[in-house]
Write a structure and sequence with these properties.
Structural class: mainly alpha
Helix content: 55-70%
Number of domains: 1
Largest sheet: none
Strand content: under 5%
Shape: globular
CATH superfamily: CDP-alcohol phosphotransferase transmembrane (TM) domain
CATH class: Mainly Alpha
Order of helices and strands: HHHHHHH
Number of strands: 0
CATH architecture: Up-down Bundle
Distance between the termini: 30 Å
Length: 226
């Protein structure tokens, strides 16, 4: 594992899809309409809320509907991430930045993460301790973001490092939702989402530690230089 120098950290979350043609075409289309980046950010919470509700409903539904709920939850999680992609692109590339943009960039994410992760925990409630894992994963997800925002408030570069940053958490839960379809035939109910939440918890805890260490080194280095 290599150490991260604070000076190497980006000021904007690196997203590979931002440089693709399809993303730029959609962002340009949105920017040309009466759609604001803040509205897109709020839409991400709607997608997360629907995903969380679908996950919560999973254990209450017959198998066929439960399978559909898992697939739709995965789609909604990706919808949340697409909103996170396009709000920034419409704001920056589309020239629609607003004074409250930073607020809308962060607060919806702090709501969306718990909605999905806690929903995943209750979707795997048959495993007994999975809801606790969901709550713990949500707490750590918020803490990773808190350390990044705290660093920026102290004039440190924004730290989007992983191994369990937002896009990693959401990708893992998306894959877990799809793989959970196997539970209707060969696996215990809730086992896949429980395993995913264990990975999120340990990965997010490591992310918290790494970001804290990077911020600590930055502050000490700045004090020494001063």
């Amino acid at each position: 594992m290599t150490d991260t120098s604070p000076n190497d950290l980006p000021q904007r979350r690196p997203i590979a899809a931002r440089d693709t043609g399809w993303a730029n075409r959609i962002a340009s289309w949105l920017a040309s309409r009466d759609v604001t980046p803040n509205q897109i950010s709020v839409a991400s919470v709607v997608f997360a809320g629907v995903a969380g509700a679908l996950l919560l409903a999973r254990l209450q539904l017959p198998d066929g509907w439960a399978a559909a709920a898992l697939v739709l939850a995965a789609v909604c999680i990706q919808g949340r991430l697409l909103c996170n992609l396009f709000d920034g692109m419409v704001a920056v590339e589309g020239g629609k930045t607003t004074p409250a943009g930073e607020m809308f960039n962060d607060i919806p994410d702090r709501i969306a993460d718990p909605l999905i992760l806690i929903g995943a925990g209750y979707a795997a409630a048959a495993m007994g301790y999975a809801p606790l894992l969901g709550w713990l994963a949500a707490l750590l997800a918020v803490l990773t973001a808190y350390i990044r925002v705290l660093g920026v408030s102290l004039d440190a570069p924004a730290d989007f490092g992983g191994p369990m940053a937002k896009q990693h958490r959401m990708a893992l839960i998306t894959v877990a939702c799809v793989l959970s379809l196997a539970e209707f035939w060969v696996l215990p109910a809730g086992s896949v989402l429980t395993a995913a939440l264990v990975l999120v918890v340990f990965g997010a805890a490591l992310t918290v530690w790494r970001r804290t260490r990077t911020l600590y080194r930055f502050l000490n280095a700045r004090a020494t230089e001063g």
